[in-house]
Amino acid sequence: MQSPHRPSLLRKMNVRKVLEVIQSQGTLTRADVMRCSGISAPTVSKAVSALLDAGLLEERETAEFSVGRPGKLLQLPRFSAQVIGVVLDWDYCSIVASGLDGFLHEEKLDQFKTPSSYEDLINIISQKIMDLVKKEEIPALGVGITVPGLVNSNDGRIFLASNLHIVDGQAPAVDIAAKTNLECILVQKSTSLCLSEKTYGAGQDLEDFISLDVTSGFGMGAFTGGQLLDGQHGLAGEIAHITVEPQGGRVCGCGNLGCLETVATDMALTHYVSKRVGKELDFDAIKELVKQGELDITPELDRTIEFLGIGVAAAINIFNPSNIFITSRLFDLQDDVFGRMCDLAKNRALKPSSSSCEIERSKGNKYLGAVAGIINHLANGLGPRLT
């Protein structure tokens, strides 16, 4: 006997399919959507109506010089609706508005130094969000918040943020939602970058790919079989805290010694360079000194990319992806750094997997990652994917 809930579920899946077609293809007519999705005209029409009512689509007239009577054009809202992206990080936090098409209103980007207390963090972010929404007078459909830490997807609480301990055990999305009355979602930073590639970037047509963020930590997000790898608590794919230096390694933010995160990231490089020169330097200062020829970081850079290559090789062996997208500023320090790291990774990985894997620099950014997090959440609310 067929479940009485089946037709309703199928309607939701069709609505989501229509949204995903327009996300991937851009501005379309209803007839275009029908062709691209394989869904019947009446079903497309109902799905479009639902998306228009929800504010997730807008329609506009075709150009006046169009021949015949073409249908209205459907597109993701750029200025008639917005989502807010919030990026939490160990040094600075950022807030930016975006259209639902992923167009960032970067002129409204607001960046501030990360406060020392969790209460101040929530109060500042909530106030800035409300000021932004009030000023623009554009409906805000939700807020995507990213954090460089381990997020429990079941309750939105942060297990551990190795470099931002004021949020350990906290649920920022819940607390910000309570103050702003907006729908909020918290996403691990590396996962958000992965969603960004899938929604707006080079991963749109890929089924199996990995996104690595090795700036402050060693974060990984993965799509396998077209689905975001999640796990019991949303922690699947966590390789940052694999021990690679069991003897004499640095203490990691997780409390263990010699984690991959302590040796294979932008922050790891700054630590070891600062230690050698005897003063605290940030990445930008190191980059400028290298550019001016005043600082040789060859020993630290070689060591960092060797460990990064080990981490990338492990990801290739474990997940067998078609592509790996990496976010790192290490590759800006010397022209050959990225190529050297790729060679190291492929030489260490299993040949059947590495030979068919493309390693690329990510073209996304942390702001778009936060936006993709809330966009994906809103899409999930429409229903599961129609495969």
TrEMBL record:
Signal sequence, renumbered to the chain: none
Q: Which residues form a coiled coil?
A: none
Q: Which terms in the Gene Ontology molecular function aspect does this entry carry? A: DNA-binding transcription factor activity
Every copy of the HTH marR-type domain together lies at: 18-62
Under the heading Pfam families, the entry gives: MarR_2, ROK
Family as reported in the entry's similarity comment: Belongs to the ROK (NagC/XylR) family.
Q: Which PANTHER family match?
A: BIFUNCTIONAL UDP-N-ACETYLGLUCOSAMINE 2-EPIMERASE_N-ACETYLMANNOSAMINE KINASE, ROK (REPRESSOR, ORF, KINASE) FAMILY
Q: What is this protein called?
A: ROK family transcriptional regulator
Taxonomic path: Bacteria, Pseudomonadati, Planctomycetota, Planctomycetia, Planctomycetales
